[in-house]
Amino acid sequence: MDTTRTATEVASIDFPTAELNFVNASHNGTHLNLNITNEGDDVMNLDDAYLTLDGGRILRISGAYSTSDYIFSGEVIHVSLVIPAANAPARVSVSAWGHNSAMVVS
Fold first, then answer.
1. Strands (E), the chain
2. Which pick of 3, 5, 78, 101 has the fewest CB atoms within 10 Å?
């Protein structure tokens, strides 16, 4: 099987366009609260999306959000993680399908 593609063939592939971005990120002393929206056109399986805390710890969103396996275009989901104040991250990022969004935690 030949898996080589020309640049023209690759350019014509219709890749999904889900784009996850933060609405806000805050820590209240016991919980890290994140509101994340899908600003793209496609539904995304949350198994394909990852959170990074302070550029180190990586978490799959599906492991932290149990209401649905998917985030739909235009939808906002709330993810809450139990993280003590001493370990609260200063910055978070969400990554999926080649897109990354980062935010300072307030």
1. 20-27, 31-38, 44-45, 49-53, 57-60, 70-71, 76-82, 91-96, 99-104
2. 3
